[in-house]
Amino acid sequence: MATTQQAQLAAGRTALLQADNSQVAQLNFAQFYGLYRQTQLAVLANSYSNVFLLTAATTVLAALVALLLRSGPAEHSESTAVPVE
Q1: How many domains does the chain have?
Q2: Helices 2-16 and 29-67 sit at what angle, rounded to 10 degrees?
């Protein structure tokens, strides 16, 4: 899931860096690489953040469902079954 989000976010942010943009066109290799690394790091952090939020929401939902479960021992019916030793 994180990989899919990374691909979507990276494609969206890379689309913002058009080659016809005068600021991007005048970057040398080191500056462009720095911009690339910064963009990839932001995408990675954002995708991990989204996965963390989904995990937290699922955990809270599971805890709320667990609170609705019956507590205590299960009631046994009066059957004449013989226990197996």
Answers
A1: 1
A2: 140
